[in-house]
UniProtKB/TrEMBL annotation:
All copies of domain M23ase beta-sheet core, residue ranges: 138-227
Segment forming the signal sequence: none
Protein name: Peptidase M23
UniProt domain Peptidoglycan binding-like: residue ranges: 17-73
Taxonomy, superkingdom: Bacteria
Pfam families associated with the record: Peptidase_M23, PG_binding_1
Source organism phylogeny: Bacteria, Pseudomonadati, Pseudomonadota, Gammaproteobacteria, Candidatus Competibacteraceae
Amino acid sequence: METISASVGAGGANRPQDVIKVQNLLNQNRARVPDAREITVDGLVGPETINAIINFQRHVVGLSNPDGRVDPNGGTLRALNQGVNAPTIPAPLPAPPAAPGISVVLRFPLNARPRLSYKTGGRYFGAPRTTSTGGHRSHAGCDLIVPKGTPIVAVADGEVIRNPYYFYSGTYALEVRHTGGFVVRYGEISTAAQGVSAGNSVARGQVIAFVGKLESGSSMLHFEMYAGTASGSLTVRGNPPYQRRSDLLDPTPYLDQATLT
C-alpha cells in the first residue's frame, strides 16, 4: 500500500516523490475510469495529473465536486490503493436469482437518474470491497450518486418495517417491505422523512428519506433488494461473498426498468 508524505494535486505540496507515487497509482487504476489514458510519470503536477485525479474522484470515489487533490489520509488515496489490490480479490460469485413474484415495474427511488452509472466504477452490485478487518466481500447493492439532501422516494407501495438505524460512515438506513413481499434497504440516508417510521404505510413515489453524506465526503443512495423469503437481519457477516441475508437480490435489472413516475 502506497503512502505519501503530503498532498498531491491542486493546491498540494506536490513533493516529487509523492507525485510519482500518485501518478503510478492513477495509471494502475485506469481500468476503473471511463476512457482514461496513461499519464506521464515525471514527478510534476500539471493539468494532465490534476485532470486524472478529478476523473478518478468523480467516477470511482463518487465525489460530486472533486477537488483534484490526493491527501495522505484521504479517501482518494485509499480508493487508489484499493484499486491496485483489486486484481487479487476473488471475482464475485454469480448474482442471486431474480425474485419470484416481483412483476411490477418499480418507481425509480430518485426523481431523476444519477449522472454516474450504478453499473460501473465500483458502484455496481458485486463490486469488490475491502472490509474493516482487511478481508474481502462483494458490494451488496447499487450506489446512486447524488448530492446530500436529495429526496428518496418509495419504489412501490409498502410498509416501513424498521425505524432508521445507523448504517455506515455517519449515515443511516431505512427498511421497507413492499407490495409482493420484497424488501428494500434504502441505505446511506441522513434521515427519514417526517412521519416515516416503523409500522407506517408508504405509497409509490412518496418521499420517505433524504440522501446522507459519508465521512469521506461522498453522498449517495445505497440501494439493496431482498426477495422477502428469508427472515432476520439483512446484514449477515458470516454469509459470503455479500455478507447479507440469503434472499439478497441484484437490484440492477429492477433499477434499469424502473420509471420516474
